[in-house]
Write a structure and sequence with these properties.
Shape: elongated
Number of helices: 9
Order of helices and strands: HEEEEEHHHEEEHEHEHHH
Helix content: 25-40%
Number of strands: 10
Low-confidence stretches: 133-143
Length: 297
């Protein structure tokens, strides 16, 4: 029943039956794919392993035919169910488009989700191949964009070569606005991607990591520029670690600095601006109690 349900949308182009509990696909109307005649007979079958959304890997048989007139062989066309040269059904692939918006483009979390909910192991490279086509920007139906975006660039490996994946997300709906693969990550490429991705959309703020080149690009496009809190915290941790290595401070003093740094990082998690100001003033008032280290100053 689950297999019938998965094939329901595609059943118009072929028939599905079962022989000894093995799904068996054959043409609804057997015709030669080359001449269109009905002078064809069955000519064995092809064994395949298809991966369904709720079932996982399943052995199936696909009926083959031979034309009496031209002598050419062919098999049942399953492209409405599964793409050519692929074992993953189209229904399963479409699930990745929903998951990529839920997980903010995290391919690692999408892989975990496939394993957890469907019991299917899918590599992140396979999911990338489903979603990305050459250098075309893939746009999802977002309705109206909020104007608040998150932009990031990450390395991905395609056909053995490292590329740059440029991704723009709507930070309110948590959906991908655009994705594109480029050979470089220079200022011209980033500006081109953002300009094309945000054309005719609301323009308020773009949040990025601490890469300095974004500071000149984003305001030029009519956006305010914000720095990612996660990357800011990460940068502060790195600065503290660098300070420790350069100045050879003791472990005890380093731990004290780390506690004080946490107080600063906690400010970023406050949702109330007035409370944030009060906490900052409190830290300034108590600064003499802090470590005399260069970092905290």
């Amino acid at each position: 029943m689950k297999i019938f349900k998965s094939c329901q949308k595609a059943l118009k182009s072929f028939d599905l039956s079962f022989k000894k509990d093995v799904p068996y696909f054959k043409m609804s109307l057997a015709r030669c794919l080359h001449f269109g005649t009905r002078h064809v007979v069955k000519y064995g079958f092809t064994k395949r392993r298809l991966v369904f959304k709720e079932i996982g890997k399943t052995k199936v048989k696909v009926q083959r035919y031979i034309c009496k007139r031209c002598g050419k062989t062919f098999q049942t066309d399953l492209t409405s169910l599964v793409d050519k040269n692929s074992n993953f059904t189209n229904e399963l692939k479409s699930e990745s488009e929903h998951l990529i918006s839920d997980y903010l483009g995290s391919l690692k979390n999408i892989c975990k989700s496939f394993k957890k909910f469907f019991g299917i192991t899918v590599s992140h490279q396979t999911i990338e191949n489903w979603l990305f086509v050459d250098e075309n920007i893939l746009e999802f139906d977002l309705g109206r964009c909020s104007g608040y975006y998150v932009f990031d660039v990450e390395w991905i490996k395609i056909n053995g070569e490292w590329k740059y994946r440029h991704t723009l997300l709507d930070s309110i709906s948590n959906c991908i606005v655009a994705d594109a693969i480029y050979d470089t990550e220079d200022e011209n490429t980033v500006e081109k991607f953002l300009r094309e991705s945000t054309a005719n959309k609301n323009k308020i703020v773009i949040t990025t990591d601490l890469d300095k080149k974004y500071a000149s690009i984003i305001p030029k496009l009519g956006f305010k520029h914000q720095l990612c809190i996660f990357h800011t915290k990460k940068s502060l941790n790195k600065q503290l670690k660098t300070f420790k290595d350069k100045n050879c401070i003791s472990d005890e003093e380093y731990q004290e600095c780390h506690k004080q740094l946490k107080m600063i990082k906690d400010l970023f998690d406050l949702n109330d601006y007035d409370k944030f100001k009060n906490e900052v003033q409190s830290l300034i008032y108590r600064k003499k109690r802090f470590s005399s280290s260069y970092f905290i100053k």
